[in-house]
Specification:
Blueprint lengths: L2 H26 L18 H6 L2 H14 L4 E8 L2 E12 L4 E2 L11 H15 L31 H6 L19 H9 L4 H4 L1
Antiparallel strand pairs: 1-2, 2-3
């Protein structure tokens, strides 16, 4: 089996591994602090009511943009003083069935998750709960099964994953082709039989 095939399949798994690092590190700490919005600094007691008057205009901006850009569906929210004050929707969450978008619709955000993952990892680093130079396999034990191309290849670290410097030779939409797979199927294909790399 060639290194390119093995590494190519691992590249497709790197984003998931980074996400698992966040989850594993986050779950490993007991009593982690939760976010609490700071107290509002505004003194105008009518401020919220004034802001609420803008909601229809904001909704219209989003609806006009979605129509002009041919966006099939969108949802948005406005937060005031740490609380969700308004939600708006337009279009369809599923075009063929014409199922409408609701405030609870879930959208795929693809690579935008990389930014959230990176921020979460850096927050864990700042709290002293992980080091960017920790081996990724510390948080994703299945990565211990990775076959490196040479005996002196460095162990992949969190820093490598965050900076896309782990040495994987390609990036492609493999993940988009796996949306219907169960967690068990993904786990098996990610870290199970290495011959799966050839089959994918």
């Amino acid at each position: 089996m060639s290194w390119k095939l093995i590494a190519g399949s691992w590249k497709r798994r790197a984003a998931g591994a980074a996400g698992c690092v966040v989850l594993a590190a986050g779950l490993s700490a007991q009593g982690a602090p939760t976010f609490k919005a700071p107290a509002p600094r505004f003194v105008d007691p009518g401020r919220r009511a004034k802001l609420e008057k803008a909601f229809p205009d904001i909704d219209r901006l989003f609806q006009d943009y979605a129509a002009g850009a041919h966006v099939p569906g969108a949802a948005w929210g406005i937060v005031i003083d740490g609380q969700l004050a308004h939600t708006g929707v337009t279009g369809y969450r599923d075009v063929p069935s014409k199922a409408p978008v609701t405030p609870d619709s879930v959208f795929r955000i693809a690579s935008m998750t990389k930014s959230f993952t990176a921020i979460a990892i850096l927050k864990l680093r700042d709290e002293g709960r992980l080091s960017l130079d920790d081996p990724a396999e510390k948080y994703v034990p299945e990565m211990k099964a990775l076959v490196y191309p040479t005996s002196d290849a460095p162990t992949i670290t969190i820093r490598h994953l965050l900076s896309h410097a782990e040495g994987f030779p390609e990036d492609n939409p493999w993940g988009d082709q796996q949306l219907a797979d169960t967690d068990e199927q993904l786990s098996g294909s990610w870290f199970g039989d290495p011959t799966l790399a050839v089959l994918q």
